[in-house]
Amino acid sequence: MNTQKASFLQDKIIGNLFFESSTRTHCSFQAAIQRAGGYNMNVQTQYSSMNKGESPEDTVKTMEQYCDGLIIRHPDIQFVHKCAEYSNVPIINAGNGNGEHPTQALLDLFTIKQSHMIDTSLKIAFTGDLKNSRTCHSLIRLLDRIHDDYLFYFISPHELRLGHAFLASLRNKYVCGTTLEEHMTELDILYMTRLQKERITDMTANIENVKITNELLNRGKDTMILMHPLPRNDEISVCCDTNKRSKYFDQMKYGVYVRMAIMEYMMNKKLKK
Ligand code: CP
Q: Which of 73, 82, 138, 263 is the most buried (most CB within 10 A)?
């Protein structure tokens, strides 16, 4: 990876509190902190005093005493917002339950901008577990905010579709469906997600109709890009990894740059308070 070292986090300690599993978000934030000259303090929740009955709230209040900023992922949608109300240090939402994943949305937008003009009439499909995918919620809202001439395709099983209130809040046009094949040749961007098994109680839902193979991918436009926040299960065949349309490894790489930029903004904002 060719990233120049910056110094805006010099002498700063950033705390990582992941109360839910993560590989990309946790590690890319750690890489971003180190590349910006700062120090990481990681709470290993499985070895912390939460094992002695300490609450997540007290764990956050403890880390606030040691750190200049906190990065928090928690399965409860409200938790990170409550922390932001009482915290004296800036907090970044690294994923709150099936709510939002705002830093992923920014790195996704950065990825899209590498191949497409974002102020044009793009046709963008979101597939998989749209009900529970916080990455989709955040990216759809972000795209809907920056432009009003997109066409969204929301492809998911009936029980995993986006809610009525979410759909009603959009200003761009959208179509809802259950199969991907019929739209494949129209798309500029295909954003896939996995079945969020950790959030689904009714496991009758499946995403068999929204699996992608190289054969299906090659039916897309030459300029179409395939994105996925990862981790994946089996909704994208590994054969697609070397397809020129596949951008999910680029997304991971851009995550470091974008999270560096987010933390620079965060620290500047805090200093101006
Ligand atoms: N994209 C993403 O949030 O991945 P992790 O769950 O591995 O952090």
A: 263
161 is annotated as an active-site residue:
no
CA 14 / ligand 1 centre spacing (Å): 19
pTM: 0.94
Average pLDDT for 42-49 = 90
Position 207 confidence tier, pLDDT thresholds 50, 70, 90: low
101 is catalytic: yes
Mutate to test the pocket of ligand 1, among 22, 98, 132, 197 (most ligand atoms within 8 A of CB): 22
Helix (H) or strand (E) holding 143: helix 134-146
pLDDT digits (tens, 9 = 90+) for 164-199: 999 999 999 999 999 999 999 999 999 999 887 777
Kindly state if the Cβ of 232 falls inside 6 Å of ligand 1.
no
Catalytic residue among 26, 35, 74, 101: 101
Tens digits of residue pLDDT in 12-21: 999 999 999 9
Residue 104 Cβ contacting ligand 1 at under 6 Å: yes
What is the residue type of 50?
A: M
Task: Report H helices in 114-247.
Answer: 134-146, 164-168, 214-217
Q: What CA–CA distance (Å, rounded) separates 13 from 125?
A: 39
Instruction: Calculate how far, in angstroms, residue 218's C-alpha sits from the geometric centre of ligand 1.
Output: 27
